[in-house]
Design goal:
This protein is about 40% helix and about 15% strand. The chain is built from 13 helices and eight strands.
């Protein structure tokens, strides 16, 4: 049975690269994004218009945005932290800006050096400027399913922040499991409540695989009716407030699982595996992707020849 069409958003070139110590050359970034544009994504988060001092890995944001080859069927988005960042992004003709704040007061103070109310005021000013243009506005709410300093975050608190942004005209909200604290039943309940209360918002789920539950949480979100998901090629990414964590849910592992279960992602798995194989050379180390190491479920192998082992020497799992 063929199930509903899903939309996959690639975040590796922003959320992934910003965490890397090695600077990925501008031309290499552009070439990778051009390659990803041909893979069938609904959206690609290209870069971040943050201060180069704050995130030196993405100091070439303008050059990257100006040089990529765009497709009409792909939304090219960028993270924007303030008015200056919004102006830079608008000058590069982005399709969408992505704004970020935390639902948790502690995480927002630690990550953004502001209270939540200060963040909201700053983002409201950005929205008032960008709202006068055709550019879409998405808000990513960090720690929506748990804070490493405060613990559980109530669904009422999360939905309250969604409401405040819906009231000032954003078109999309991303609920982020920033440090991988989410679990399936929690995800299903929050997703279902958000969809019911905000049927006109474009809702996206953003999972990290910190505790190995990203794919399980994706299935729970699907069961609640979510059809948009962020993912990161190779599983790149991470969070400084989750020590030892792996990155975001791995795009190729996500697409592989969804296709096996009959969902249409529109993403060409063979092409993204080929793109993911380039990452170690770009960033200088291995990536978390298990699919890149083990291959797809039906990538078969020839029988060893000659088969010289004996029953006594064989090891069975």
């Amino acid at each position: 049975m063929t199930r509903k069409r899903l939309r996959i958003h690639e975040v590796a070139t922003r959320d992934g690269f910003q965490n890397e110590a090695r600077f990925v050359d501008t031309d290499a970034k552009v070439a990778l994004i051009d390659r990803l544009s041909e893979c069938g994504y609904a959206k690609i988060e290209v870069t971040s218009f943050t201060s180069p001092k704050a995130i030196p890995a993405l100091r070439d944001a303008e050059a990257v945005m100006h040089n990529i080859k765009r497709r009409d069927d792909v939304v090219y988005t960028a993270l924007v932290p303030n008015i200056r960042g919004a102006e830079r992004a608008l000058s590069c003709h982005v399709d969408e800006i992505n704004l970020v704040m935390s639902v948790s007061e502690s995480h927002n103070r630690s990550n953004l050096r502001m209270t939540r109310e200060q963040s909201f005021a700053q983002l409201r000013d950005i929205i008032s400027v960008v709202g006068q243009t055709p550019v879409s506005i998405n808000v990513s709410l960090s720690t929506a399913m748990g804070c490493p300093m405060e613990g559980d975050i109530s669904p009422e608190q999360v939905l309250g922040w969604v409401q405040r942004f819906a009231d000032i005209g954003v078109h999309g909200i991303t609920l982020c499991d920033t440090t991988g604290m989410a679990f399936p039943s929690q995800v299903a309940a929050l997703s279902g409540a958000a969809l019911k209360r905000f049927p006109d918002l474009e809702l996206t789920l953003h999972f990290h695989n910190t505790r190995g539950m990203a794919l399980a949480n994706t299935l729970s979100a699907l069961s609640a009716g979510i059809n948009r998901f962020d993912a990161s090629l190779g599983g790149l990414g991470g969070c400084p407030y989750a020590p030892g964590a792996t990155g975001n849910v791995c795009t190729e592992e996500l697409v592989h699982m969804l296709e096996l279960d009959g969902y249409q992602t529109g993403v060409d798995l063979e092409k993204i595996l080929s793109a993911s194989a380039l990452l170690p050379g770009l960033i200088g180390h291995d990536v978390p992707s298990q699919l890149l190491k083990a291959g797809r479920r039906l990538d078969l192998h020839p029988m060893p020849s000659p088969c010289a082992g004996t029953a006594e020497s064989a090891v069975f799992a």
